Amino acid sequence: MRLVVTKMNLGLWAAAYVKEKIHAFRPTAEKPFVMGLPTGGTVMDFYANLRLFYKEHLLDFRHIVTFNMDEYVGLPADHPQSYRSYMRQNLFSQVNIPPENTHLLNSQAANLPLECAQYEKAIRQAGGIDLFVGGVGRNGHIAFNEPGSSFTSRTRPVRLAPATIQANSRFFLNDVHRVPTLALTVGIDTILQARELLFLVSGSAKAEAVAQLGRPGVSENCPLTALKWHPHATLLADPAACALLKGPIRKNLDDCMQAQPDAPHWMLHLPKETLWTTF
């Protein structure tokens, strides 16, 4: 796993990275580029820049297949805060991606476990996910895999943690009672099966979660640490999100920043001593 810290706009950095990955892949109708996609405030700029690249003819979505991470249970598909609405507004309606290439969990399904199993099957039939982009919750959750989620979990219904409900209430008129308490989410193992991961994290409110990466090993109490096990995982962060890092990773980051103070970003791999054992 590598950590990339930048003072640039995270969304621009991530969108440029994804654009280059797609160009290098050279997708076709027979071999599309398969992406896992997130929602939320952190990735708004990411989608804004993807839209800009499309508008400027720098990116073509015809041969892109997408699978979204999660969806609230209990919100109609056309609800303004449903993730189906989010994706339509922020990407799908503004680029040339074929509707049949987009996949979102149906939280209105009569049988939610069956819906989740079929979603896993659709990912397999697509050949697996080439690049999964995601965000990080304040409590370290990835997708809606809350602390305590098994690292072997697959797509399933979940109950949202109080901290997540509180954080997401800003999208529901700051009223926690309006936030759904249940969701469908891809599992941690579903994420880890992707060939590459790119997760974005910003702000001091996420610093405690990022700090767990400096501790030895992994813990189901901080799902973010599962990324340590992936051979091609990148966490893209701003300096504020890294404020609480300690130990060898803090020293390595400080050394990089002091050696190249004007660099557009600083990149380092997690020290080996942080990868193994659990905490």
Write the layout of secondary structure elements.
Blueprint: E1 2-6, H1 10-25, E2 33-37, H2 44-55, E3 64-68, E4 70-72, H3 83-90, E5 102-103, H4 112-125, E6 131-135, E7 156-159, H5 162-168, E8 182-185, H6 188-192, E9 197-201, H7 207-211, E10 233-237, H8 247-259, E11 265-269
Helix pairs in contact: 1-2
Comma- or semicolon-separated keywords:
279 residues, alpha/beta, 8-stranded mixed β-sheet, 3-stranded antiparallel β-sheet, 8 helices
State Rg: 18 Å
CATH fold name: Rossmann fold
Spell out the helices and strands N to C. Answer: EHEHEEHEHEEHEHEHEHE
Q: Which CATH class applies here?
A: Alpha Beta
Q: How big a fraction of the residues is strand?
A: 15-25%
The helix-and-strand class reads alpha/beta
User: Per the principal axes of the C-alpha atoms, what is the gross shape?
Assistant: globular
What's the pLDDT, averaged over the residues? 95
